[in-house]
Amino acid sequence: MRSEKGIVPAIVVWGFVALLLLPAAAVALNGMTTEWDGTVLPTGFTTAWFHNLFEDPRMSQAILNSLLISTATLVLSALVAVPAVLAGHFYLPVLDRCLAVLVILPYAVPGIVLGLGLLRLYAGNFGIVLTGTPWILILAYVPLGASFYYVPMKNNLRAIPAREIFEAGYLVGASDLAIIRSIILPSIAPALIVGFVMNFALAISEFVYANLLVGGLFPTLQIFMNVLRGGSGHLLSGVIAIYFAILLIATSIVLWATRPKSAAEGQ
Amino acid sequence: MSFVSLRGLDKHFGQTAVFTGIDLDIERGEMCVLVGPSGCGKTTLLRTVAGLATQDSGTITIAGRDVSRTAPQHRGVGMVFQNYALFPNMNVEQNLSFGLEHQKRPKDEIRSRVAAMIELMGLGQRAKARPTALSGGQKQRVALARALIMQPQLLLLDEPMSALDAKMRKRLREDLKRLQAEIGFTAIFVTHDQEEALVLGDRIAVMHEGRFSQVGTASEIYNRPASRAVAEFIGEFNVLDQAMVRAAFGRDTAKAWALHPESIAVEAAVPRDAAVDKIVATAVVTDRKLLGSTVRYQLAVGGINLKSDQLNKPSRALFQPGQSVCLVIDREDVRDLDS
Amino acid sequence: MIQSASAGARLAAAIVAVPLLLLVLLFELLPLLAVLVNGFLHDGAFSFANHREILASAFQRNSFVNSVVLSLATSLIAVAASLPIGRALHTMPVRVQRIVMTYANFGANFTGFPIAFAFIILFGLSGSFTLLLAKAGLLGGFTIYSKTGLALVYCYFQIPLALMLVFPALDAITPDIEEASRLMGASRFSFWTRIVLPILLPSLVGSFVLLFANAMGTYATAFALAGGNANLVTIRIGELVAGDVFSDPNLADALATLLVVALAVPIAIERLIARRGDRDAQ
Fold first, then answer.
1. Which of residues 73-132 of A touch C (CB under 8 A)?
2. Nearest CA in chain A to C173
3. Pairing of strands B238-240, B211-216
4. Residue C53, strand partner residues
5. pLDDT band at residue B194, thresholds of 50, 70 and 90?
6. Residue A134: inside a domain, yes or no?
7. Domain count, chain B
8. Which chains lie within 8 Å of chain C at 3 or more CB pairs, if any?
9. Which of C28, C112, C126 sits opposite A114 (nearest CB)?
10. CATH number, residue A180
11. Which of A156, A170, A172 is the mutation pick for testing B, counting most B CBs within 10 A?
12. Which chain A residues have a beta carbon less than 8 Å from that of C4?
């Protein structure tokens, strides 16, 4: 296979990537055109739509809200999920198994179903009203995003290898906490960064909960997109293009964080 | 009272014994080697001495202190792990200073001790390198340095050379012996390589299925194996049970025999002065291999296969496969096996 | 696990995990329970009435059929597509693999409005590709607003997800295995059907189940593309909650329960296969 590598695999792979990026490119293009109706390629280009967007108070509000929720989710999930994964890996195998099952939950129970449940519980039926506030979103996103920490962290811990390093740390006299703080956490930094970014991406891409539980009371970027649905396609394209740009930055960060450390960096 | 003392250590996993009836005494400054095939329990025993695993019963005493239930941090042991377990986010110096920093030693002292250890281990060029940039041999030396810099009373080594090639192993073996002579640490070294055990060990414990088959010096183990298990593991013994002895040499014996290949002399014909205490038999050469300084013959005697090693002296003629030869063995070279 | 950890350390570890477990309880498990319980409430009494009503309605049954067919089809296509892409990717240097896999990761998450709208731009009534295809005479009756159109959009995020799930398993097909197979005279077809597929089958089945669940649970994308017109289970649930005319919370919960049950079966099977696979690998 190696000698026959040739051009075919490259075509398949890069073709795949091109198709993946095509819709994003199309949207971005649409956000920059004056006229793209009934023709294969746009006829006029303008940055007017982006200007409009940046002057539209709804847009700045939506971006701000989204960034707020996403950052809060990122921080809270880090504080809550990272210690739990470490606790399961080093001390409590039972917890570890529970966390492994938890990772499947978002697939087994779709967002629309859990969204319903959240509505039943926190819209005032039991005296608690969280719906309509950003809190319901943040608190609901955190357990969903926990799996984005679990998988990369477990892989990284297995690769280091974490258990022997822990024992080595013991034998030179360090306490559990010191070992976790000074050795384990820095060594799994790539996994942590992946988790941060994925949680951020989850929060900023989420629509079902946002629409069902908060809607216009605290409009996120995705809600704003829904609002713009009926109107000018170019404006909506602009919003989507900005959203894609944010995701692109996030992708790049993940790529950078998970780069293999070259031997030269040892010097 | 010896420096390190293990008494009646026992650990079971369900019905299987991981190790049982372990009694061992190690004097100060001694290198004791635990050797045995994979799965015999030697690594678990080592980890138990370190405190990283717990025994079901028995005691562990180090320098007069009973540490059977003490946490690993407080036993005064250091350990070199099989895969080194170097701290990946720290360079060599930081790996070495980590433990000292946790003892809250003054910075100057830490710096000088780290520098001295790096010098001793020949790691000067790589002092600022991270583990990923080190070779296998260098990683091993850092792991050893990290353990030694804490001045442990007992150093534990878990097959530290198994990931290295033969040449590197020889070199590091010599380095280890030299260090031990210089620093004078007491150590337990676990390996599955019987040659390594014989070279390194002041005291050797041969382990088989969770038990010590024999404990002794290299010479004792090699020349007077106590049992079949030991004979089959150490050296390249020809092990014959009573039936095989009868078939090969026509003798009835009370115990099984173990014969070193080098104690079976191969002659062209029966020597005229065959004394009474020599065992003589005719055999056919089935195979011959040149191993450099020795020639190894595979011989068939009365249906039994034996290995014989002869010095490859230029003056000696080599025997051909298929040739009929005469074996001469000194009775006192035969090891009687107890079990 | 650290075998020698003290009881105190274990207790501290348990305490540290409590916040996450609490959030899981309050925002995942209890809501699920609420939905399940609510589905059984009909006019204040505990019964299967809601579920029966749903199953009796041809329209609702159809939504299940549509959802299942759509999910099965896109999952199969995704798994099938991921194999050649994965194999091709395997031959590329690690640097390239990382880049492509990271983009696949995000492709798998490009769901909802952004992707639906992007496809409308490309394939909508006056979209670029629609025009191109029409000019080339290849369009046929295709429109993005049809079931096929929906399937196309689903494939966009299903295929990268399939790649992410299947790619690690391809490590098992080493170049050595391939060379050995070639030396023994096996054709490419033989190689694929008698060596690759059997080795990969457990992973493929597991991936397929996750893809199926992913597609069944998709709401935002379908909603963005077709609004209430798509007859899918998730859309029907959404309508029963938020629609003015059709609002019936208990019915919505019953439908949601049925959806969860429909997913629980394949997932339970997948878990069993995964556990057996782990045991075989010992």
1. 79-81, 83-84, 86-93, 95-96, 102, 104-105, 107-114, 116-121
2. A1
3. unpaired
4. none
5. confident
6. yes
7. 2
8. A, B
9. C28
10. 1.10.3720.10
11. A172
12. 167, 170
Q: How far B45 CA sits from the closest chain C CA (Å)?
A: 14
Rounded to two decimals, the pTM is: 0.82
Would an 8 Å CB–CB cutoff place C180 in contact with chain A? no
Partner-chain contact A164 B90, CB within 8 Å: no
Structural domain ending residue among the three candidates B233, B257, B289: B233
Q: Which of C25, C9, B55, C29 is nearest to A92 (CA)?
A: C9
- For residue C86, what is the domain's CATH number? 1.10.3720.10
Interface predicted TM-score (ipTM): 0.84
Whether C3 sits inside 8 A of B53 (CB atoms) is: yes
Judged by CB atoms closer than 8 Å, whether chains meet at B102 and A171 is answered as no
CATH code for position B293? 2.40.50.140
Summarize the confidence of residues B167-176 as an average pLDDT. 88
Residues B226 and B302 placed together within one structural domain of the fold: no
Q: Can you tell me the distance from the alpha carbon of C144 to that of C225, in angstroms, rounded to the nearest whole number? A: 8
By Cβ distance, the residue of A95, A167, A258 closest to C17 is A95
* Cβ within 8 Å of A, C 101-120: 102-107, 109-115, 117-120
**Three-class SS state of A183:** helix
- The answer to whether residue A135 sits within a structural domain is yes
A181 touches chain B (CB under 8 A): no
**C42, C251 contact by CB (below 8 A):** no
Which residue, B233, B258, B292, sits at the end of a domain? B233
Closest CA to B337 of B233, B209, B251, B229: B229
Range A68-96 average pLDDT: 93
Q: How far is C3 from chain A (nearest CA, A)?
A: 8
- DSSP H or E stretch at residue C46: strand C45-46
Average the pLDDT over each of A143-157, B205-219, C161-175 and give the range with the smallest value.
Answer: C161-175
Distance CA B294, CA C137 (A): 84
- Say if residue B73 is in the same domain as residue B53: yes
Domain shared by B164 and B249, yes or no = no
CA-nearest residue of chain C to B49?
C4
Total domains in chain C come to 1
Residue C5 lies in a domain: no
pLDDT at A263: 45
Query: Considering chain C, what is the average pLDDT of its residues?
Result: 83
User: Based on the structure, what is the number of domains in chain A?
Assistant: 1
Range(s) of the domain holding residue A224: 64-258
Q: Domain for residue A28, yes or no? A: no
Residues paired with A122 in a beta bridge: none
Task: Report whether pLDDT(C43) > 80.
Answer: no
Do the domain assignments include residue C38?
no
Q: What is the dihedral of CA B97, B100, B106, B109, to 10 degrees?
A: -70
**Would you say residue B109 has pLDDT above 80?**
yes
Report the C-alpha gap between A234 and A231 in whole angstroms: 9
Residues B51 and B70 in one domain: yes
Question: Where in the sequence is the domain holding C239, given as residue range(s)?
Answer: 58-281
**What one-letter code names the amino acid at C126?**
S
Q: Is residue B34 domain-shared with residue B133, that is, in the same domain? A: yes
What phi-psi label fits residue B21: left (phi over 0), alpha (psi between -120 and 50 degrees) or beta? left
Phi and psi torsions of B318, nearest 5°: -95, 145
Task: Assign A36 a pLDDT band (cuts: 50, 70, 90).
Answer: low
Q: pLDDT, tens digit, for every residue of B118-134?
A: 999 989 888 999 998 99
Is residue A244, in this structure, part of any structural domain at all? Answer: yes
Query: Per the CB < 8 Å rule, is C3 touching B54?
Result: yes
Confidence of residue A43 (pLDDT cuts 50, 70, 90): low
| Beta-carbon separation of B130 and A172 below 8 A | no
Residue B302 touches chain C, beta carbons under 8 Å: no
Nearest CB to A166; choose among C2, C28, C98: C2
Give the residue with greater pLDDT, C7 vs B87.
Answer: B87
Task: Answer yes or no: is pLDDT of C278 > 70.
Answer: no
B90 touches chain C (CB under 8 A): no
B138 and A CB contact within 8 Å: no
In this structure, the answer to whether residues B192 and B293 fall within a common structural domain is no
| Structural domain boundaries, residue B62 | 4-233
Query: What is the distance, to the nearest Å, from the Cα of residue B206 to the centroid of all Cα atoms in its chain?
Result: 8
Distance from CA of B156 to the nearest CA of A (A): 11
Dump the DSSP string for A71-117: HHHHHHHHHHHHHHHHHHHHT-HHHHHHHHHHTTHHHHS-HHHHHHH
Mean pLDDT computed over A27-52: 68
